[in-house]
Amino acid sequence: MADHQNHSDQTPPLIEARGVRKTYSFGAVPVEVLTGADLIVHPGEWVAVLGSSGSGKSTLLHLLGGLDRPDKNGGEILFDGQPISVSHGKRLDGYRNKDIGFVFQFYHLLPELSVFENAMLPGMVGNWMTNRSEARKSASKLLDSFGLSHRLAHRPGQLSGGERQRVAIARALVNSPRVLLADEPTGNLDAKTGEGILDLLAQRHANGLTLIMVTHDPAVAARATRVVKLANGCVVQSSPSE
Amino acid sequence: MCVAMVVTVVSVMTGFLDMLKNSGRQIVGDVIVSSGIAGLPYSDEFLVDLKGLKDVQGATPLIDTIGLLRMPYPRGNQKEVAHVQVWAVDPISLATVTDYANDLYWKPAENAAAALAMAEDDPRKNLSEKILTDGKTLIQSKTGNPGIALGIHVSIGNERQRDGSYRPRYGWFMPENDVTLTVVPVSSQGKIAEPREQIFPVVNEVQTGIYEVDHNRIYIPLKEGQRLLRLDEAPLYDLNAEPDAQGRYPVIGKTPARVTKILVRAKQGVSANSLRAQVETAYASFSKRINADLTRNAVMPDYVNVLTWEQQLRDLIAPVEKEREMMRVLFSLIYLVCAGLILSIFWSIVVEKTRDIGILRSVGASRLGVMWIFLRYGLVIGVLGSALGVLLAWLVVRNINAIHEAIGSDAPPTIWIGSFVLTGFFAIGLLYSIWRGKLLRILLWLLATLVMGLIATFLALHHGTLIWDPSVYYFTSVPDQVDWITAWTTAIGGVVFSVIGAAIPASKAADIDPVEALRYG
Ligand SMILES: Nc1ncnc2c1ncn2[C@@H]1O[C@H](COP(=O)(O)OP(=O)(O)OP(=O)(O)O)[C@@H](O)[C@H]1O
Ligand SMILES: [Mg+2]
């Protein structure tokens, strides 16, 4: 089950899931979604996680992003060789804020804030003491490069799906994280718009960003440097796609 | 809102109480020595003793009794007779113990500006200093006769104006009239003697601000009171000797004049209670001294009542204190309900915003950060609400007499006609909105029309109810001082409650797992 990679076995993994188990107990009936998933991602990789609907892709990604915790004794997530779940609280907040960027399947933008404010949100919540000019600069640069510079003052509700997703990606990238976790970034978009988003991700990847992307669409997965499959709660297969 | 309510009510009540207490002190001094009907002899000597005490600012003797006062004006085909409480006083020393001199109502304006501020028909405009001096001495300077000062509401002659000043009613300006006072002397054995009456010229009228007093009290010179009540100096006859040809016993001395009360005023900063103790000891040693002196023709009573003004006026103060406490409790309940309201509002905000909280958490906001957002809201709402509440209460309390006046009198026609016009406008708005067919607008206009119509009708029909009836409450005006202690505690409580009200849902918000939160909505 280990992913033995041609890719840089010698470089230490950036993010790693070790035997991760996740059980949702819905009432009396526990649903075992992940039963021991392992995944090692090295810096500079673009990993696509493929799997059918309900296979636990989102769950895995949430765990990797520190948004959710594995079961007790249900493995751990390591970032830079350090478990992220040793302590939750400040460190986990910092991990979510700085080390990773998360792009949700359904954008999850704050409807009351403008596009610009949404994009610089992580810069605002992470460090409220330090000046925000950096977040401001970074956000405007990102939005600019995503072709949204003319919509900064708009509310997310006034944008199309593709535009929203670009705002969400800008938000995920504003604190210059080392890994971008994207849950079906193209899932709600038409093929052409989805292509645009993927181009954008590819460009970021080319600039050295590590990417983990969840999708159920093999065509989308094909853009990644490596594809892993999720089935029966485990990462069952991995194939380099380059 | 809640803060405003609590502060207003408690302020008025507290102000009322303070006013009561304060005027109580102004009227009876700090400590009252009172004896039975037989009275206290040698009060002059006791007063010297009292004035020698280091904490005593002043002391004054008086006789307190009841009497009938025949007014110069008629009721039916007879002259009106009023029951009065008679205070036979030494006006000069009374002024050192109570506010007597300041409470004299009829006096010329102090300066030109004050005179200018008076209304054209205010009788005080044409008064001379003499009326004030006459009041201060209780002597009619024109004739040299002893005079009487009436509480301002004793006669019906004074009509209170909106600004609190008085006008003579039916032309009865009392200081130009004579009244006849009838009192009943009571012997030391408690027997009632022949009633005695005397005509007094009214020299001035007294406004203490306590309705009970202003409605009942009259002041005459101590000497006159003593004479009328047979408490004056009298020859002492030797009943064991042979009477002379006319049946008179030989005179062997004099019995001293008596008073029934002594009012004592403490120096600034001395509590009434400590003064009371001092006065009690002073009396004990004084009576011992007199009673040991065999040359005296009278003995001091062994027991006199020495009370502080608070004890003396217990009956007046206690119910008001109770009333205030009840109000406080009632309004605190309302206050708590408000706190609950804030809590539930914040709770629903948190529930509604759960998804957004999840988003914030997912981009790295800490629990404290999320909590702070809500606490900040609570703080802002609390501070703003409390500040507004205190401000509103302050405005209301400061203007309470004007508000009271407004409620107590007919609404001016311009206002209620204006309200009807406004109702008309709203009705037009209603018709227009019906024509446009927007349901919410129709509803709002309907509501506005109805409410405005009700207000207008109410104003038109409103003929003034005097809430603060001066005969129910003891004062002639509503207290208008904000009770700052209550204001501050209520305001700070308001802030604390809204912060707590925000903190509970906020901590709930902070505890939600981001993924959980994101599943909402
Ligand atoms: N909070 C939860 N409580 C109970 N069951 C849950 C919860 N979250 C997820 N599940 C269940 O876990 C399983 C995996 O869900 P997950 O969202 O990870 O699937 P997915 O692979 O992302 O599917 P999709 O492709 O449709 O997004 C599903 O069967 C889902 O019903
Ligand atoms: Mg999913």
What features would you describe in this structure?
Chain A is of the alpha/beta class. Helices cover 31% and strands 26% of the residues of chain A. Chain A is built from eight helices and ten strands. Chain A has helices at residues 57-64, 90-99, 115-119, 121-126, 133-145, 161-173, 191-206, 218-221; strands at 15-26, 29-41, 46-50, 76-79, 82-83, 100-103, 179-183, 210-215, 226-231, 234-240. In chain A, the strands form two sheets. Chain A has a six-stranded mixed β-sheet, sandwiched between helices. The longest helix of chain A is centred in the last third of the chain and has 16 residues, at 191-206. The relative contact order of chain A is 0.20. Mean pLDDT of chain A is 84; it is low at 1-8. With 521 residues, chain B is of the alpha+beta class. Helix content of chain B is 52%, strand content 18%. Chain B has helices at residues 2-28, 43-52, 91-97, 100-103, 112-117, 129-137, 211-216, 222-228, 272-292, 309-312, 314-352, 354-362, 367-398, 400-408, 413-436, 439-461, 484-511, 514-518; strands at residues 31-34, 40-41, 56-75, 78-89, 139-140, 145-146, 148-151, 158-160, 166-168, 178-183, 196-206, 217-221, 234-237, 251-255, 258-259, 261-266, 305-308. In chain B, the strands form five sheets. In chain B, strands 3-4-12-7-11-10 form a six-stranded mixed beta barrel, surrounded by four helices. A two-stranded antiparallel ribbon of chain B has the order 2-15. A two-stranded antiparallel ribbon of chain B has the order 5-6. In chain B, β5 (139-140) and β6 (145-146) form a beta hairpin. In chain B, α1 runs antiparallel to α17 (484-511), α13 (367-398) packs antiparallel against α17 (484-511) and α15 runs antiparallel to α16 (439-461). Chain A binds chain B through residues 62, 65, 67-69, 89-90, 93-98, 102, 104, 108-112, 121-122, 125-126, 128, 171, 175, and chain B through 355-356, 358-367, 369, 513-515, 518. Residues 57-58, 105, 183 of chain A line the site of magnesium ion (MG).
